[in-house]
Specification:
single chain; alpha+beta; D-amino Acid Aminotransferase, Chain A, domain 1; five-stranded antiparallel β-sheet; 10 helices; 15 strands
């Protein structure tokens, strides 16, 4: 049966008005809940400029209270009554945003694990744990159905040499998370010498097949993604980039990154990709990205985006 055009127009207008009404109610509800109920705390080292930036942006939003806690002044209290956190002020928040540095992963994991009983912790304890070690991260990427280069984690120098020499070229990394200690081994004949240099650091090795492609750096902020391409200087290796350019990534890559975000329980983090022949490989994940860099390249306010995401999903 054909519905008259006038009736359809009335119905469409009614639906539009109804949607506008619901959006207004939702936004007012989020504002009300945040203003009267949501206290948010950022936990980071007092030298972390990115944490200060987030703090300043959060204060502009509709939170009841925003607090910046110095990680170095937090203590974990263990007694027969249980485990808790001691701080100079009462430590009771609706949402805790933690900025875990490489050297503080274990401590931040414990803080997050304790706080999760009464607060929403971002990132989650599991995310912090997975990002503390390249082996755990590789396993998490696999379970989230992400694509990554063939990787090995090994303890002994002998095993590392044996594996590294199998590749025509590889990336030699420390298994402990962090961008430090990453060396490209261009020839298998050089692998043994470079492994010996790493062995003095007394840490497990991560050996990853080298994929010669373009580096794409992405920042996941809630459900949005900011991406940039790193372009190497003329005639130089990709690790020595000349400039960065803002790009838009493919929809399927965006969906894969958002799936990883949900799997990890992290909603403000960086993923480094290698693009080769229209295929993307995850090579690194960081929970403490350089937010200023992404603001400058994209012209967007990352701190405000993250605050809005928290207000919409945790109020």
């Amino acid at each position: 049966m054909n519905v008259p055009l006038v009736k359809l127009t009335v119905l469409n207008n009614y639906t539009r008005i109804k949607n506008i009404k619901y959006n207004i109610i939702y936004k007012f509800s989020s504002f009300f809940n945040a203003l009267f109920f949501m206290n948010i705390c950022i936990i980071a080292k007092n030298t972390d400029k990115e944490a200060v930036y987030l703090y300043e942006e959060f204060k502009k939003k509709n939170f009841k209270k925003v607090f910046l806690a110095d990680l170095a002044k937090l203590n974990i209290r263990v007694s027969n009554r249980g485990v808790g956190i001691s701080y100079k002020n009462k430590f009771d928040w609706d949402v805790c945003v933690i900025r875990p540095r490489v050297e503080d992963f274990a401590f931040c994991y414990l803080i997050s694990d304790i706080m999760k009983k009464k607060s929403a912790c971002l990132p989650t304890p599991q995310a912090i744990l997975n990002c503390s070690n390249r082996g755990l991260m590789a396993k998490a990427i696999l379970e989230a159905k992400g694509t990554q280069p063939l990787s090995y984690i090994c303890l002994s120098t002998e095993s590392a040499k044996n594996i590294a020499t199998r590749f025509k070229a590889c990336a030699l990394k420390l298994a402990k998370h962090g961008g430090k200690g990453v060396v490209l081994v261009k020839k298998s004949s050089n692998a043994s010498e470079l492994v010996d240099i790493f062995s003095d650091l007394d840490q497990p090795f991560c050996i990853q097949r080298f994929i010669n492609g373009e580096i794409i750096k992405t920042l996941i902020v809630g459900e949005e993604i900011i991406a940039m391409r790193e372009l190497p200087k003329n005639g130089e290796e990709r690790s020595n980039f000349g400039k960065r350019e803002h790009i838009k990534i493919k929809e399927e890559v965006k969906n894969d990154l958002l799936s990883l975000s949900k799997y990890l329980g992290a909603f403000l983090f960086e993923v480094d990709l290698i693009e080769k022949n229209s295929k993307y490989y995850i090579i690194d994940v960081s929970l403490t990205p350089n937010l200023e860099m992404y603001c400058e390249i994209s012209g967007r306010n990352v701190g405000a985006l993250y605050a809005d995401y928290i207000l919409q999903n945790y109020s």
